[in-house]
Amino acid sequence: MIVEQKNSSEQNKTAQLTINNYTFERDENFKYFVVVLNADNNHERDIQERIKNAKKTYFMIQFF
Questions:
Q1: How far is Cα of residue 61 from the mean position of the Cα atoms in its chain?
Q2: Which domain holds residue 13?
Q3: For residue 18, which of 4, 5, 34, 42 is within the disulfide window of CB 3.0 to 4.6 Å?
């Protein structure tokens, strides 16, 4: 197995990981179960996402 990591010139923000012939690009934000994770470990987006979902649920319940 060959593992290789290449960095781009954009300050390591779009690094690539190559395993054998498969190349994986780095994603800035992704959702793991219910938590939004990002590259700089900032929880602001996760908190905003939870508030948005809570508001949706609250207003949906109001109509029943």
A1: 29
A2: 3-62
A3: 4
30 token code pair: 């992704």
Of 29, 54, 23, 57, the residue nearest 43 (C-alpha): 29
DSSP single-letter state for residue 17 = E
φ, ψ for residue 11 (rounded to 5)? 55, 45
Q: Degrees (nearest 5) of the Cα angle 6, 7, 9?
A: 140
Q: Which two tokens stand for residue 9?
A: 């010139």
> Where does 1-64 have alpha helices with state H?
44-62
**Global pTM exceeds 0.90:** no
| Per-residue model confidence as pLDDT tens digits over 44-62 | 888 888 899 999 999 999 8
